[in-house]
Amino acid sequence: MTEAHDPTVSAPQFAPGASAAANLSRNEIEALCLKAARGAGMPWGLAEEAGFAAGWLALHGLDGAALLLAHLTDPLESRFAISDRQWSGMDGLCPIAVGAALDDHAALPAGICAGPVSLRALRRPVLALPLLARMAAAMGRALVLDWNGGQARITASGAIAPDDLAMLAALCEADLTISVTADAAAAPAPTGIASVSEQALAGLQALAMRTTVPASEQSRRGAGAAASDND
């Protein structure tokens, strides 16, 4: 039996079998995804990047929350190695860790400004896209992403064409090569926030609740002010 205001059940509840989608703001999506990433074991910095990625994708019409949940429930080592401009990991590359690192390395010898970068077995490449788009806008340089069977371009303002976005969203894993290129054609501005599916919302909430502590006699014992604060 739970109590009123119990933090472990404070999230919205859905009836079993109901078909529901939540219309959340970008800030709400990012906050929920950040907490879910922390609950899944990501360090703070990467969890913040994960929240940003999910919010950016939602702004561009994809259920970024669901895409991130699929990544969080498929544990992957965030460490990787760089050798001769090739980035690789033991079991594939984490898109959040690699996207953030590419941004950090942009102006370094191993970074994108010094030449093409090859990413071996990048998992769910679309999750790295928001971080690459932010990097492109910060540099004022367009990027081209090549993989076996496809190509996508990010403009110097960080925009991407819907068709290119859809191709990346369809990839579960790919060997990508990223290069600086001449500015790509202009892409349409985002028109609205994608809703979050019921399944994604429930899964993310479950992960987020791992960051909370259930109420107990010990936690209640020291709650509240020790004296009146009325002036």
Task: Describe the fold and architecture.
The protein contains eight helices and eight strands, in the order E-H-H-H-E-E-H-E-H-E-E-H-E-E-H-H. Helix content is 37%, strand content 16%. It starts with 20 loop residues before the first strand and ends in a 10-residue tail after the last helix. By secondary structure, it is of the alpha+beta class. The protein is globular. The strands form two sheets. It has a six-stranded mixed β-sheet with strand order 2-3-4-7-5-6.
E-strand count: 8
Order of helices and strands: EHHHEEHEHEEHEEHH
Number of helices: 8
Whole-number mean pLDDT: 86
Structural class category: alpha+beta
C-alpha end-to-end distance: 39 Å
User: What is the CA-atom radius of gyration, in angstroms?
Assistant: 20 Å
Task: Report helical residue fraction.
Answer: 25-40%
- 3D shape: globular
Report the portion of residues in β strands: 15-25%
Biggest sheet strand line-up: 2-3-4-7-5-6
Largest sheet: 6 strands, mixed
Poorly predicted regions are 1-5, 7-18
